[in-house]
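hiii so um. not sure if this is the right channel but i have a protein structure encoded as tokens and i wanna go backwards to a sequence. like what aa goes where. can anyone help
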């Protein structure tokens, strides 16, 4: 299919002469159609991941700079270096290992043996006595 060149679902629908809603319906109703679409997109995904990985780890490539001096053109070949890009690395890690690398950490609290946390309401006097017993506030004589 056309996915190898990075086209969108909307462009595929236009190419097939159908609406995007119909395309999405076919993807849901026909697993083999969805599979074919994913397989068609796979080369573009692999290429893109490779490029992002290169960007994250840094890379070099041959390049040519064309210059002019006194009406003559000169080609200067050189190796162009790109340092690692932290943002690209973070992007890959968040997507490859979301359990380890994410912006938001989730914490779950529970009582004994994973049960609910017991909550009780104290009166002002009980709260004062407990605070004094634990040494949080001094006892008043």
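sure thing!! here u go:
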């Amino acid at each position: 299919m056309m996915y190898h060149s990075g086209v969108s679902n909307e462009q595929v629908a236009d190419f097939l002469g159908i609406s995007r809603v119909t395309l999405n319906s076919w993807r849901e109703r026909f697993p083999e159609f969805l599979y074919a679409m994913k397989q068609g997109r796979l080369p573009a995904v692999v290429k893109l991941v490779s490029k992002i990985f290169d960007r994250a780890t840094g890379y070099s490539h041959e390049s040519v700079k064309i210059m002019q001096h006194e009406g003559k053109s000169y080609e200067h070949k050189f190796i162009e270096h790109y340092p690692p890009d932290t943002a690209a690395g973070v992007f890959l890690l968040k997507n490859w290992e979301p359990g380890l690398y994410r912006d938001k950490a989730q914490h779950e609290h529970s009582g004994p043996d994973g049960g609910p946390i017991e909550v009780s309401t104290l009166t002002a006097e009980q709260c004062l006595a407990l605070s004094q017993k634990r040494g949080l506030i001094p006892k008043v004589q």
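oh and The CA atoms of residues 39 and 66 lie 41 Å apart.
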